[in-house]
Amino acid sequence: MANDMQPKNGTVSYKDTLNLPRTDFPIRPQAALDDVSLIARWEKEKLYDKAFVKNEGKASFVLHDGPPYANANIHLGTAYNKILKDIVTKSERMTGKHVPVTPGWDCHGLPIELRAAAEHPASKGSELKKECRKYARHWIGIQKEEFKRLGVVMDWDHQYETMAPEYEAATVEAFGKFVEDGYITRKNKTVPWCACCKTVLAAAEIEYSDRKDPSIYVRFPLVEHPFKGLDREVSLLVWTTTPWTLPLNRAVFLKERADYSVIEVSGHAVVVATALVAKVCDFLQVPEIILASCKAEELAGRKVNHPFIENLEVPVCTDDQFVGLSDGTACVHCAPGCGPEDYEVGLKNNLEVFSPLSPEGTYTKGIDPQELEGMAITDALGWVIKKLQEHNKLLFKTSITHSFPHCWRCRNGLMYRATLQWFCELHHKGLQEKSLKAVEHIAMFPEAMRNHLRSSIGGRLEWCLSRQRVWGTPIVALLCTGCDKELVTSDIVKKAVEGIAKQGIEYWDAVSISDLIAEGTCCSSCGSTSFKKEQDILDVWFDSGVSHYAVLKRFNGLSYPADMYLEGIDQHRGWFQSSLLTSMALEGTPSMKTIVTHGYTVDDKGRKMSKSLGNVVAPQQIIDRMGTDGLRLWVASIEMQGDVVVSDALLNNVQESYRKIRNTCRFFLQNLYDFDIEKDAIAPDALMALDTYALYELALFEQRVVKAYEQRNLTGVFHTFVDYCTGELSSFYLDIIKDRLYTDAANSRDRRSAQTVCWIILDSMTRLMAPILSFTAEQLSDFYQKNKQESIHLQDFAHLTSFDGDNNQAIRALRETIKRLVQEGTERAKREKQWGMLCTVRVSVVKALEQLRQKGIIKHSLEAKVTLIMNTNTEPMTLVKELLNDIEVTTRQKKEQFLKEFCIVSACDLIESDVEYQEEDEEGDALYFGQSEEGLQIRAGHAAGNKCPRCWQWEVTDHEDGLCKRCQKVVSVLN
Ligand SMILES: [Zn+2]
Ligand SMILES: [Zn+2]
Ligand SMILES: [Zn+2]
Q1: Which residues crowd ion ligand 3, with CB under 5 Å?
Q2: How many helices (H) and strands (E) in the chain?
Q3: Alpha carbon distances (Å) from 580 to 174, 576, 877
Q4: Which of 264, 576, 847, 919 is the most buried (most CB within 10 A)?
Q5: pLDDT, tens digit, 9 for 90 and up, residues 227-260
Q6: Helices assigned H by DSSP within 547-688
Q7: Which ligand is nearest to the CA of 524?
Q8: pTM to 2 decimals?
């Protein structure tokens, strides 16, 4: 801009007499320099502590930070989430609320345990726990610095960690309350088990590889069958590849709503799915002879005889998922005690989880027939085949090679066995039902996410709380060494809570039984007095789920329930669910009032970011490219409903928007270098008319932005900012006032009027952008806030229309004016109409000038002179006339003078006429006649006189250098 103002053809340079824009505020953000030094400054100024207590005692807003897992560098998804939380909390704080934010970390669990165990193979028990602690601590430190690097303001010196001794103690205490209220039971659950390593395996520890197994076809005779006229035994034909599980059979399942046929095979009438008849007959090499047919439902509820266990009848059930129609016979053997899917379908159908199996993989006491007791299941094949043959139930036998789960350590094939596990009973006291009801009352954004939480709570079959692991909160129970019966008393819990609060979970390893129970305590089941400590730990989702209990209710400044939980969509199955279930059990109310959910980070093709696809973008890459605020603006620009897209096109667009906002603010700084709001502000009633109008538009902008923040519509904030900078400011207000700012006398009313409003706009914009553009806003306020006392993040939004807390006399007076301007009512409506029409006039003038330019008559709009011929019989022109009169009266600025500036031309005449339409004619220099429907005609042509070398306006003048009258005056004062 500065270069525009230098005289090009004049002989004398008036450059030094202009108020040329100047500022040290950098054009481009310098993330590596400025952002990093700002972070250091915030740390030094104790911004995190101050933000935590700001507005204490006023209405509060508590966002409960869901804890990220402390085992790696943060990725773009984590950064996105944390920045969102930061934007929401900063904006809430700037509306005057007390907004304490406590960050948290999730620390227990398998990934850390596995890493620590791999790095310290000799460590066991408490030693291993100490290594896990060290490992998590290391990553918490790194992640904390990474979050700070994003400009996130949270109480970084007082975080919560699920591995902190006080947190661990609170988790145990919460578990104790669950026990007390009767939610906790210990019962069988079927788990993947390695008989060689004698341990349960986590899903991540299972590997699949091919294995050869027997494949047998077994008959289960129906006790009674519905096939009229078939006066013979009819059996369900069951196919299985695990004959050793047949003694544990508890049902035969058919496919829901499927058709079944009775076919003739080797003298037996057997039932298979109709869809599989051809395949089965082909495989068994028998002709297709169909004796009868029926629906699965006609067989459901009947009983079949176990193929070799005397006097055992098991039910026929149906299920849609458990039974497929692609292989076998679609009559499926179900042993809930030794198969994972069998277990689930067994739960749904109330079948016994029968599992008399030892950790070493042998049948144990209770197995039927008794002769199996002590036999290894791997040796049972021959026995089962023999029994089947003896009972004439084996129809066919072959072998099959198929994919089978193996242990990752010893590579042996896995078995499944039911072990005693701890459960939270979801139906006790109607917990699941109450939680489902609560889901309906939580404010949900986006609304569509309600279904996710509904189905993850409602679809849950059980909640198994125990894990056979080391790195986690212990289940503080004792087990009878005689009969394995559990013992949990409030006394044991109390002692454990006290001990763990001091020593962490390592306490449980160290404490002796005699410190936990009185001597002579007996087992309620067998009377034994010998106990051992339970070694299982709690599910990590219980850990983090009770954070409302361990953090919200205990941490200084926080409160229950939280106003908001804000996490990615996957947390509906994770943290949202476990938080809701535990809070409903412990408090009877949900721990959150609002749930805000966002999507996953994906690339421009919608693919999730993954190392193997090579499409991972690290937060630092974006920071390097467009500054930390560029990254933060990208976060705000994403619609939370959908995927979090990262693409070049999107980043370019954000970068361009950021540049626009930054340049607009830089323009203000450039023109405020000699302005002090305390000393130089113009009183509201002395402001120029256009400046007052700009204040009105600013107030509307502020209202829109604040509302968008309130509605968590950050995309709305983003767009409103960009539109305001490009529309209302760049191509309108700022374009018009440039002349005044640069060429009027520095201390003139006209220039000070524009500066007063520029300052107010900059101040308001800086505050409104601070939650998102946290670095830029801090830097901007360093420049324009004289005697700045505290960080922009400890200041409030400007509250142009609703707040008069500012001590500054000038600002208070301006606020009152603005408040009056935006007051709803006939006056505002009228003014809006008037200005709207005046702007339409301006658009018509700009069009006319464009035609002059095309005809080669002018190059720059300042070379033009226009005459506006307004037919004041029309309503639109009456509005304009009224407004212009009003301006003349209130600001003593001549209409022509106002219009000349408003249209950025060198002269503007005004003719009020009541003639409807004037013929086009050529008169003097006026080469163009335009007209518009509103009753406006424009005559435009080249302005007379010469170009003032100082301000470029054209005027007839006799000054030796050709200076216009205004410039003569300004220059003479300077000399
Ligand atoms: Zn193994
Ligand atoms: Zn016992
Ligand atoms: Zn001039």
Answers
A1: 948, 950-951, 964, 967
A2: 31, 33
A3: 14, 6, 63
A4: 576
A5: 998 999 999 999 999 999 999 999 999 999 999 9
A6: 547, 575-586, 619-637, 648-670, 677-680
A7: 2
A8: 0.89
